[in-house]
Every structure is written in C-alpha cells, then in structure tokens.
Fold Glycolipid-binding domain-containing protein.
Amino acid sequence: MPLVSAWTHSGVRAGFEVLFAETVPAGYLLRGHTTAVEGPEAWSVGYRIEADGHWHTRRAEIERMTPTGSARTTLERIDRAGSVQWLVEGVLRRELDGCLDVDLESSAVTNTLPVHRLDAVAGKTYATPAVFVRAGTLAVERLEQEYRLVARTSDEIRFDYASSTFDFRCELSYDTSGLILRYPGIARRTR
C-alpha cells in the first residue's frame, strides 16, 4: 500500500481526502482527513484507524469540525467468546455485534478494509457488515453491505458493492494494493 494517497470527492459532495498509511508492529495504521461541502453543509473529518495484521479493524478515532463546532468519538473492537462487539465511547453497542470494520461516511478509504481481508472468489458474495460513522454528526449505526468480486487483472480489482441499509449499488474499482481508484458518485483517486 502506498504511504500517501489522495482522492477528489465529487458527486454527493465536493472535497478532497488524503491518507497516510503505514505498517506497524501490530498491523496497519491509516491516518487521514477529508474536507468537503455536501449540500449546504461544510465539514472536515479526520481519522486514525488501527487494523491488525489480518485487516480486522481494532480501533478508530474520528474527529469532525463543522461551523457549529467540533466533536470526537472513539470506537474499540472487543472479541468475546468468538463474537465481535464494539464499544462507542466506552459503551457497548449490541446492535453493532458482528461488524468487522469501520466505514466512515466521509471516506473512500474505509472501503479498503474488507477488500484486504477477503480471499475473494469471482462471483461469490461476501457480507461485510460495518460500524458506520456519519460525517456531520459522528452518529454511529450498523451498515449492512456486500462485496462480490467481478474481475481481477494485473492493474485493477473490481467489486460489485451493495448496501441494503442505503439501497445503494455500484461497481468499485481498486488498484492492486487494495485502495479505491473509482467510487462512482463519491470519489476518484488522484494519487
């Protein structure tokens, strides 16, 4: 994975995202920031996501700024008796049980987390529910989503993506390092 990557956001919002990625002893660290205008609102969201060596999200710290102020939230994954659970600001949120990833509304990057972990076979659909964090409010909810490998070439990996939570479907294109190249209506990689 490149150490620095960037995306232009367009369609749903106009903005820019930058990612600083590094391999750390415990796995991977993704630090990034998105600034955008979406409808009448402007916001800025920074994130720090820790994943283990198998690309399971372990912890996420998210901070947002809007004209009305700033806020922070911390998400922590806990594994208990074979099940995945999440603490949001230290409070157990049972509706998030079974979610393996964090997906930030503000970020194209977070769609890389399940793709790195999947040993995807073409045509097979993989359910990957995620902890979804809203950009403007940092509200946390469950996101039902699925990925289906369409094709893998020497330059690109393509997945059909669907979210029943938002009744949304598209084809996501990734580079061979697993970072989004094109997210229709949301972002395009520029670096």
In short: The chain has one helix and 17 strands. Residues 4-189 form one domain.
